[in-house]
Amino acid sequence: MPDILSIAIPTFGREGVLLDTLDQVLAAKPADAEVLVVDQTADHEVATLQRLQTWVDAGDIRWIQQQPPSLTSARNRALREARGGIVLFLDDDVRVPPSLFAEHLRLYRDSSVAAVTGQVWNCRDPENPPFIENPTQGTYPHSHVAEQVDARNISGGNHSVRRSVALAIGGYDPAFRGSALGEDMDFSQRLLLAGHRIIYNPDAWIIHLGIRSGGCAVGAGSPWPEWQHAGSLLLYAFRHGRRQKNTSHIVWMALRNGPLRREVATNPIKWPGAWCGFLRGVAYGWRHRRFQHGIESGAAYG
Fold first, then answer.
1. What's the rounded Cα separation, in Å, for the pair 93 and 132?
2. Region 199-219: what's the mean pLDDT?
3. Which of 105, 156, 184, 280 supports an S-S bond with 227, CB 3.0-4.6 Å?
4. Are 161 and 114 in contact (CB under 8 A)?
Protein backbone atom coordinates (compact mmCIF):
# COMPACT_ATOMS: atom_id res chain seq x y z
CA MET A 1 0.00 0.00 0.00
CA PRO A 2 1.20 3.59 -0.64
CA ASP A 3 2.46 5.68 2.23
CA ILE A 4 0.20 8.11 4.10
CA LEU A 5 -0.35 11.53 2.58
CA SER A 6 0.67 15.03 3.65
CA ILE A 7 -1.28 17.72 1.76
CA ALA A 8 0.77 20.91 1.61
CA ILE A 9 -0.77 24.26 0.66
CA PRO A 10 1.69 27.18 0.43
CA THR A 11 -0.26 30.44 0.59
CA PHE A 12 0.45 34.15 0.20
CA GLY A 13 -1.93 37.11 0.19
CA ARG A 14 -5.10 35.03 0.14
CA GLU A 15 -8.13 35.25 2.41
CA GLY A 16 -11.57 33.84 1.57
CA VAL A 17 -10.35 31.78 -1.36
CA LEU A 18 -7.83 30.04 0.91
CA LEU A 19 -10.61 29.16 3.34
CA ASP A 20 -12.74 27.81 0.49
CA THR A 21 -9.83 25.68 -0.71
CA LEU A 22 -9.28 24.28 2.77
CA ASP A 23 -13.00 23.55 3.18
CA GLN A 24 -12.90 21.36 0.08
CA VAL A 25 -9.61 19.67 0.94
CA LEU A 26 -10.72 18.84 4.48
CA ALA A 27 -14.01 17.42 3.24
CA ALA A 28 -12.37 15.16 0.65
CA LYS A 29 -9.04 14.06 2.13
CA PRO A 30 -8.32 10.54 3.41
CA ALA A 31 -8.93 10.13 7.13
CA ASP A 32 -5.24 9.55 7.90
CA ALA A 33 -3.94 12.41 5.74
CA GLU A 34 -2.60 15.61 7.29
CA VAL A 35 -3.02 19.15 5.94
CA LEU A 36 -0.14 21.61 6.23
CA VAL A 37 -0.79 25.28 5.49
CA VAL A 38 2.50 27.12 4.97
CA ASP A 39 1.28 30.68 5.41
CA GLN A 40 3.40 33.59 4.20
CA THR A 41 0.77 36.31 4.65
CA ALA A 42 2.00 38.77 7.27
CA ASP A 43 -1.40 40.30 8.12
CA HIS A 44 -4.58 38.30 7.60
CA GLU A 45 -8.11 39.56 7.94
CA VAL A 46 -9.59 38.79 11.35
CA ALA A 47 -12.12 36.33 9.92
CA THR A 48 -9.34 34.37 8.22
CA LEU A 49 -7.26 34.23 11.38
CA GLN A 50 -10.21 33.00 13.41
CA ARG A 51 -11.10 30.26 10.92
CA LEU A 52 -7.53 29.03 10.64
CA GLN A 53 -7.18 28.94 14.43
CA THR A 54 -10.44 27.01 14.74
CA TRP A 55 -9.08 24.35 12.39
CA VAL A 56 -5.81 24.23 14.32
CA ASP A 57 -7.63 23.83 17.65
CA ALA A 58 -9.69 20.99 16.18
CA GLY A 59 -6.56 19.25 14.90
CA ASP A 60 -7.71 19.58 11.27
CA ILE A 61 -4.68 21.47 9.97
CA ARG A 62 -1.12 22.34 10.89
CA TRP A 63 -0.66 26.08 10.40
CA ILE A 64 2.96 27.01 9.73
CA GLN A 65 3.75 30.72 9.45
CA GLN A 66 6.85 31.68 7.50
CA GLN A 67 8.58 34.85 6.31
CA PRO A 68 9.80 36.22 3.96
CA PRO A 69 7.48 35.03 1.19
CA SER A 70 9.04 32.45 -1.13
CA LEU A 71 7.15 29.67 -2.89
CA THR A 72 10.16 27.37 -3.04
CA SER A 73 11.09 27.97 0.60
CA ALA A 74 7.48 27.25 1.56
CA ARG A 75 7.61 23.97 -0.37
CA ASN A 76 10.85 23.05 1.39
CA ARG A 77 9.37 23.90 4.78
CA ALA A 78 6.48 21.55 4.02
CA LEU A 79 8.91 18.79 3.05
CA ARG A 80 10.79 19.20 6.32
CA GLU A 81 7.63 19.31 8.44
CA ALA A 82 5.59 16.61 6.68
CA ARG A 83 4.80 13.40 8.58
CA GLY A 84 3.67 11.47 5.52
CA GLY A 85 5.89 9.73 3.02
CA ILE A 86 3.99 11.29 0.10
CA VAL A 87 3.62 15.07 -0.06
CA LEU A 88 0.92 16.53 -2.33
CA PHE A 89 1.32 20.21 -3.19
CA LEU A 90 -1.79 22.21 -4.09
CA ASP A 91 -2.29 25.86 -4.93
CA ASP A 92 -4.30 27.93 -2.45
CA ASP A 93 -7.03 28.86 -4.94
CA VAL A 94 -8.33 25.54 -6.22
CA ARG A 95 -11.38 23.32 -6.30
CA VAL A 96 -10.77 19.60 -5.76
CA PRO A 97 -12.88 16.53 -6.57
CA PRO A 98 -13.22 13.77 -3.94
CA SER A 99 -11.20 11.42 -6.18
CA LEU A 100 -8.07 13.61 -6.28
CA PHE A 101 -6.18 12.08 -3.39
CA ALA A 102 -6.78 8.44 -4.32
CA GLU A 103 -5.71 9.17 -7.90
CA HIS A 104 -2.37 10.48 -6.65
CA LEU A 105 -1.78 7.77 -4.05
CA ARG A 106 -2.61 4.71 -6.14
CA LEU A 107 0.32 5.31 -8.49
CA TYR A 108 2.82 5.04 -5.64
CA ARG A 109 2.08 1.32 -5.42
CA ASP A 110 4.71 1.22 -8.17
CA SER A 111 8.03 1.72 -6.36
CA SER A 112 9.61 3.23 -9.48
CA VAL A 113 7.31 6.26 -9.32
CA ALA A 114 8.86 9.24 -7.53
CA ALA A 115 6.33 11.93 -8.43
CA VAL A 116 2.81 12.25 -9.82
CA THR A 117 1.34 15.26 -11.59
CA GLY A 118 -2.25 15.83 -12.61
CA GLN A 119 -4.43 17.85 -14.93
CA VAL A 120 -5.18 21.48 -14.08
CA TRP A 121 -8.33 23.09 -15.46
CA ASN A 122 -7.63 26.84 -15.48
CA CYS A 123 -10.65 29.12 -15.09
CA ARG A 124 -11.24 31.72 -17.78
CA ASP A 125 -13.33 33.69 -15.28
CA PRO A 126 -12.04 33.21 -11.70
CA GLU A 127 -15.21 34.76 -10.28
CA ASN A 128 -17.42 32.16 -11.96
CA PRO A 129 -15.72 28.76 -11.69
CA PRO A 130 -17.46 25.66 -13.02
CA PHE A 131 -19.22 23.16 -10.83
CA ILE A 132 -16.92 20.35 -9.71
CA GLU A 133 -19.08 17.92 -11.73
CA ASN A 134 -18.18 19.71 -14.98
CA PRO A 135 -14.58 20.97 -14.75
CA THR A 136 -14.17 21.61 -18.48
CA GLN A 137 -16.88 24.28 -18.61
CA GLY A 138 -15.35 27.74 -18.83
CA THR A 139 -11.80 26.43 -18.38
CA TYR A 140 -8.78 25.49 -20.47
CA PRO A 141 -6.43 22.57 -19.73
CA HIS A 142 -2.84 22.80 -18.56
CA SER A 143 -2.16 19.60 -20.52
CA HIS A 144 -3.81 18.25 -23.66
CA VAL A 145 -2.68 14.68 -22.93
CA ALA A 146 -5.68 12.47 -22.24
CA GLU A 147 -3.99 9.30 -20.99
CA GLN A 148 -1.65 8.30 -18.17
CA VAL A 149 1.96 8.63 -19.35
CA ASP A 150 5.50 9.15 -18.13
CA ALA A 151 6.05 12.91 -17.89
CA ARG A 152 8.91 15.34 -18.25
CA ASN A 153 7.46 18.04 -15.99
CA ILE A 154 5.17 18.44 -13.01
CA SER A 155 2.45 21.03 -12.58
CA GLY A 156 3.44 23.15 -9.59
CA GLY A 157 -0.10 23.56 -8.27
CA ASN A 158 -1.06 19.88 -8.48
CA HIS A 159 1.75 17.41 -7.93
CA SER A 160 2.90 14.91 -5.34
CA VAL A 161 6.32 13.49 -4.59
CA ARG A 162 7.94 10.89 -2.38
CA ARG A 163 9.28 12.95 0.50
CA SER A 164 12.49 10.92 0.76
CA VAL A 165 13.27 11.46 -2.93
CA ALA A 166 12.56 15.19 -2.79
CA LEU A 167 14.84 15.59 0.21
CA ALA A 168 17.56 13.52 -1.43
CA ILE A 169 17.77 15.79 -4.48
CA GLY A 170 17.85 18.95 -2.36
CA GLY A 171 14.20 19.95 -2.49
CA TYR A 172 13.00 22.97 -4.42
CA ASP A 173 15.52 25.65 -5.32
CA PRO A 174 14.97 28.93 -3.39
CA ALA A 175 17.00 30.72 -6.07
CA PHE A 176 13.69 30.85 -7.96
CA ARG A 177 12.42 34.15 -6.62
CA GLY A 178 9.20 36.16 -6.66
CA SER A 179 6.69 34.54 -8.99
CA ALA A 180 9.17 31.61 -9.13
CA LEU A 181 8.28 30.81 -12.75
CA GLY A 182 10.14 27.68 -13.79
CA GLU A 183 10.68 26.28 -10.27
CA ASP A 184 8.45 23.27 -10.98
CA MET A 185 10.24 22.56 -14.28
CA ASP A 186 13.61 22.80 -12.54
CA PHE A 187 12.52 20.39 -9.82
CA SER A 188 11.26 18.00 -12.51
CA GLN A 189 14.52 18.06 -14.43
CA ARG A 190 16.58 17.42 -11.30
CA LEU A 191 14.28 14.48 -10.45
CA LEU A 192 14.76 12.98 -13.90
CA LEU A 193 18.51 13.59 -13.95
CA ALA A 194 18.73 11.68 -10.66
CA GLY A 195 17.10 8.69 -12.39
CA HIS A 196 13.59 9.05 -11.00
CA ARG A 197 10.23 8.72 -12.71
CA ILE A 198 7.32 11.17 -13.00
CA ILE A 199 3.82 10.00 -13.98
CA TYR A 200 1.09 12.25 -15.41
CA ASN A 201 -2.40 11.13 -14.41
CA PRO A 202 -5.21 13.12 -16.08
CA ASP A 203 -7.69 11.71 -13.56
CA ALA A 204 -5.84 13.48 -10.72
CA TRP A 205 -7.31 16.83 -11.71
CA ILE A 206 -8.11 20.12 -10.01
CA ILE A 207 -9.82 23.36 -11.02
CA HIS A 208 -7.48 26.33 -10.65
CA LEU A 209 -9.26 29.63 -10.11
CA GLY A 210 -6.25 31.80 -10.94
CA ILE A 211 -7.19 34.63 -8.59
CA ARG A 212 -5.36 37.72 -9.85
CA SER A 213 -4.30 39.06 -6.44
CA GLY A 214 -1.93 37.32 -4.06
CA GLY A 215 -0.11 34.11 -4.81
CA CYS A 216 2.59 34.24 -7.46
CA ALA A 217 0.73 36.49 -9.89
CA VAL A 218 2.74 38.59 -12.34
CA GLY A 219 1.05 41.86 -13.17
CA ALA A 220 0.23 45.37 -12.09
CA GLY A 221 -0.56 44.35 -8.52
CA SER A 222 2.44 42.05 -8.11
CA PRO A 223 4.61 42.71 -5.04
CA TRP A 224 7.72 41.32 -6.76
CA PRO A 225 10.54 43.56 -8.08
CA GLU A 226 10.65 43.95 -11.85
CA TRP A 227 13.78 41.84 -12.33
CA GLN A 228 12.12 38.84 -10.66
CA HIS A 229 9.42 38.64 -13.34
CA ALA A 230 12.00 37.27 -15.77
CA GLY A 231 14.92 36.24 -13.57
CA SER A 232 13.62 32.81 -12.54
CA LEU A 233 12.81 31.78 -16.10
CA LEU A 234 16.25 32.90 -17.25
CA LEU A 235 17.81 30.88 -14.44
CA TYR A 236 15.97 27.84 -15.79
CA ALA A 237 17.10 28.61 -19.33
CA PHE A 238 20.76 28.79 -18.32
CA ARG A 239 20.52 25.63 -16.20
CA HIS A 240 18.48 23.35 -18.44
CA GLY A 241 17.79 25.05 -21.77
CA ARG A 242 20.64 23.57 -23.80
CA ARG A 243 19.94 20.01 -22.68
CA GLN A 244 16.18 20.42 -23.14
CA LYS A 245 16.64 22.31 -26.43
CA ASN A 246 14.09 24.90 -25.35
CA THR A 247 16.25 27.94 -24.55
CA SER A 248 14.59 30.19 -27.13
CA HIS A 249 11.11 29.27 -25.87
CA ILE A 250 12.02 29.97 -22.23
CA VAL A 251 13.67 33.30 -23.14
CA TRP A 252 10.49 34.26 -25.01
CA MET A 253 8.45 33.39 -21.91
CA ALA A 254 10.80 35.58 -19.84
CA LEU A 255 10.26 38.47 -22.24
CA ARG A 256 6.48 38.00 -22.18
CA ASN A 257 6.50 38.05 -18.35
CA GLY A 258 9.02 40.91 -18.28
CA PRO A 259 9.38 43.90 -20.61
CA LEU A 260 6.91 42.61 -23.24
CA ARG A 261 3.94 41.99 -20.95
CA ARG A 262 0.96 44.12 -21.90
CA GLU A 263 0.94 46.54 -18.98
CA VAL A 264 4.56 47.47 -19.81
CA ALA A 265 4.46 47.32 -23.60
CA THR A 266 1.54 49.77 -23.72
CA ASN A 267 3.18 52.27 -21.36
CA PRO A 268 6.48 53.72 -22.68
CA ILE A 269 7.24 55.27 -19.28
CA LYS A 270 7.78 51.75 -17.95
CA TRP A 271 10.08 50.58 -20.75
CA PRO A 272 13.46 51.66 -19.26
CA GLY A 273 12.77 50.08 -15.87
CA ALA A 274 11.41 46.89 -17.40
CA TRP A 275 14.39 46.39 -19.72
CA CYS A 276 16.85 47.19 -16.93
CA GLY A 277 15.01 44.63 -14.82
CA PHE A 278 15.27 42.08 -17.61
CA LEU A 279 19.02 42.61 -17.88
CA ARG A 280 19.35 42.23 -14.11
CA GLY A 281 17.35 39.01 -14.45
CA VAL A 282 19.83 37.78 -17.08
CA ALA A 283 22.72 38.41 -14.67
CA TYR A 284 20.84 36.75 -11.80
CA GLY A 285 19.99 33.68 -13.85
CA TRP A 286 23.58 33.24 -15.01
CA ARG A 287 24.93 33.64 -11.49
CA HIS A 288 22.63 30.93 -10.10
CA ARG A 289 22.69 28.56 -13.07
CA ARG A 290 24.25 25.76 -11.02
CA PHE A 291 22.10 24.18 -8.34
CA GLN A 292 24.10 24.31 -5.14
CA HIS A 293 21.73 25.35 -2.35
CA GLY A 294 20.27 22.31 -0.63
CA ILE A 295 16.98 22.25 1.20
CA GLU A 296 18.50 23.39 4.46
CA SER A 297 20.19 26.39 2.90
CA GLY A 298 19.57 29.71 4.58
CA ALA A 299 21.47 31.61 1.92
CA ALA A 300 20.23 34.98 0.77
CA TYR A 301 19.58 35.50 -2.92
CA GLY A 302 20.02 38.80 -4.68
1. 14
2. 88
3. 280
4. yes
